[in-house]
Please model this.
Amino acid sequence: MSDATHSAPHKPTSRSLHAVDARTKRRNASESRFKAMGIGAIGIGLAFLVLLLSTIVVNGSSAFQQTFIDVPVYLDPAKIDKKGNRDLADLKKATTFTYAPLIQNGLLDVVQKAGLETDLSKAKELKNLISASAAAQVRDRVLADPSLIGQTIDFKILASSRVDGYLKGRVKRADIAQDKNISVAQLDLTDALRKAGVIHKGFNTAFIFGADASDSRAEQAGIGVSMLGSFYMMLVVLVLALPIGVAASIYLEEFAAKNRFTDLIEVNISNLAAVPSIVFGILGLSVFIQFAHLPQSAPLVGGLVLTLMTLPTIIISTRAALKAVPPSIRDAALGVGASKMQSVFHHVLPLAMPGILTGTIIGLAQALGETAPLLLIGMVGYVATNTPDGFIDGFVSPNSAMPAQIYEWAKRADPAFYERAWGGIIILLVFLLSMNIIAIILRRKFERRW
Amino acid sequence: MNDMTLTERAVNATENKITARNVQVYYGESHAIKDVNVDILDKTVTAFIGPSGCGKSTFLRCLNRMNDTIDICRVQGEILLDNEDIYDRRVDPVQLRAKVGMVFQKPNPFPKSIYDNVAYGPKIHGLTRNRAELDEVVEASLRKAALWNEVKDRLTAPGTGLSGGQQQRLCIARAIATSPEVLLMDEPCSALDPIATAQVEELIDELRTNFSVVIVTHSMQQAARVSQKTAFFHLGNLVEYDDTDKIFTNPTDPRTESYITGRIG
Amino acid sequence: MPVFWIFVIVLALTGAGFVMGRARALSSVDGDRRRLHSLPSYAGALVAMSAFLPALALFVLMLALNATGMILTGATLLATLIGIALSLRLISPEFRARNAVETGVRGLLIAAASVAILTTIGIVLSLVFNTVEFFNLYPIKAFFLGLNWTPSFGGGSELGILPLLWGTLYISFIALLVAVPIGLYAAVYLSEYASHPVRSAIKPLLEILAGIPTIVYGLFALLTVGPFLMSIFGPNGPTAAIAENGWMHAGTAVMTAGLVMGIMLIPFVSSLSDDIINAVPQSLRDGSYGLGATKSETIKQVILPAALPGIVGAILLAASRAIGETMIVVLGAGAAARLSLNPFDAMTTVTAKIVSQLTGDADFASPEALVAFSLAMTLFVITLGLNIFALWIVRKYREQYE
Model:
């Protein structure tokens, strides 16, 4: 113990505690700076979140409004029903090209009757105000009820996407010099018609429930059909991923012996969780489409790919839920003579169910927003215009999915589609938000502490 | 130097180092320390004994404001170090802790080299002007902690690679490297084997020449071996505080006697 | 629809099997269920399983072999009936139906767990086969060492991966440059400074960023961040004074994609680091505070060095995420393969090219399409390597404190 006899080389400093020395001041300043950096980092993170969400809302909310025109259209028998026999087969021969001028004439009538001042005196010059979809709308109405021919019917038709964009502030007078789809005179008339109440904005139901349209008719595009595609995909994911994921978790958590095979499965699951989603798209393309010849662009295939992608998430959360059930429950069941299988299925699984469901919902939410693998199995580029005929058809007939539809719109040249893309994101996020809220409620409600 | 009858040494300092008056500690709703008054002497080993949960560690942690790191902990009353209130608004706990060092129950060397472990305190407090001085402080601290001879050839080896007893002595060296005036030890031997415990106990007795040492211990034998003054805590109260000899041979309070003789605790 | 009807019939037979099995078990003991080894419903379950599972397996097998029509229907239904007949014969009072059912269920559980292995095998096989095919058409050396990426479906393509890898790494680097400091500082603040209520309010808010689909980030890059960067670094921005036409020539650029990807990765880095910082034992903090260190000194000199291996692991996981990210780069990075140092240039990545080579109208047998599989193979190997390495580091780190 001779070490201790050495005296300290430095004398204890016995300064008052009540006076903060310069060094401590410096250290405290550095402490405050560091803390400020932390707050700053969180601030930046939250600022990004706010920026992202507000960008979405600002750009997307206009998609839920659409510009309509009220036009009385004289369904001229001389044009529509040249033979005058009201025969459906003959009526079908009149294409939308026949109907378009009727609508233009109707609108010109409105303009003239209201006494609006405009340089546009010919019906044809009003064409750019009216959506190309209007003719089909009128034609469909006539084919559904040929007795209307000869009457003047009030239609609420879509305004063209330029008019819609003008009223929403997207299309500006300064930018339209090169635009052959709208002219200054037409915009003047738009303003006048708006004042007269002929052109008005309304809630855009068709955007939520409708089908996508070709890339020349942004005003008509809706996300409804691809929403159905997403719905069918999620059904596939739920029906496959939940039982398979739960079964796999039960095996790994309750039955698996510690051996090479178990290790192999574990390694596979943790690695699959980190495989880029695009690689799952490759898997879907070569295994399900090229090898198994399942139909391209089908929600069934998308669902299968997303199932494989979601499985690791579901397995990981299910195992956590099973692990949270205390061993005493298993012991109690085994103690009254239940088999291992019975103890798991009768006792452990029901207790773990809320946790499993929470994990599944979060997995589904993740799958719902996933885009990249869908690109490779043909769910993008397909214009989702048709609602599937019936339940089975929903799985196998080509369709898009919400995120794929958003991507599709983002790629189109006409900026009018961007508004749709942002609007689609709002709808997608509403779904994701509700799923997460359900998951949180489930967790809160059934949270159990042992 | 190898005299093992440590308690026979007289209490040779009478100067008060720490004075606690009417100290109350609350953890949220629970009243953990009730109205404790105690005078801790300089250059003396003071032992806090008592059954688990009696508040002795809590009180120890008040002496260098380690309780500040716990959100729900509130301290009332007055604790004076050299007649200055350490809970005064002007006191920076950082400066306080440089004066009142602490050694913990489990050895907790940083995952750094032995040298860096000891040099940590002097570095952050800026106690040395250059590397040579720092080397000197590190060596002196390790010598005082009776560890120098065992580690002098591997100062760059990680501190976590030492044995349990060595780790605890490293932590003591780390604590004394900032030249504190008081050294608080929270059951410093509870994670150690008997041989390591004996080494650390011997070291504590050495430390008394330079510091006021306060040690919390579960072991009455240890208190009897190393301390000159002993305080007995029970249910948050300071039941009895006196010379160690007196407490262990002729306690005043019946509760102390029950504890000493093993009937409570 | 025949597939659907086969399914319905098999299910109906399965239900009937259950009823028959149960009835047979009961009748074998004249209704006295106490004499049975297993509950009668286990006998029913056994028959149902024997009806359904072999039929399902056969059905899937035959579908894979492209069998259709009567053969498919007949074979499946026959398998169902044989399953019922064989299992019904087994039932007797002594028969251990529960054990048999449990063995079957156990088999199902193992099969479910094996899906993970099958998926990996599926991925590897589909990548390897097509990659080999590609290298039959295109020299392997030119692919890995080529400096040019100029696919043309008319032939004479140059398909060098290096410019794509460069773009991928450059974008990932910028993403990490954004995400790591912000994520790390946020994690440190949340775990060391924030009070419990603040922590439980901020953490989920930040994690919203991780829950937002990547398509949203892609759109954000393309329509918001790109134009914003253009207004600063583009031909009409302040940098035009320094460089002719400014530094940036289009909204899609390495910087656009990297910045947005960085935002996406902030919560990824912060929650992983948060877990890792929390795993540092409290005793080390106490030791440091007990010596009079301030919080920031403790963090910088004790906690972060102690957590370093784990944090490196977290950063590697984030890097692997960035390298494999698709939607942000498809929409935000540009389409031109370019080996450039200017972060405001448009570049493209491995993932973006996988998409573009497989979504065109290309013939799947052409090297221009097959190259996507070699790109995916490279991507798979890189991300897998990074992940295994990162998980290994993190595991080692956790073991240290357990």
Residues 224-446 of chain A form a domain with the MetI-like fold fold (CATH 1.10.3720.10). The longest strand of chain A covers residues 65-74.
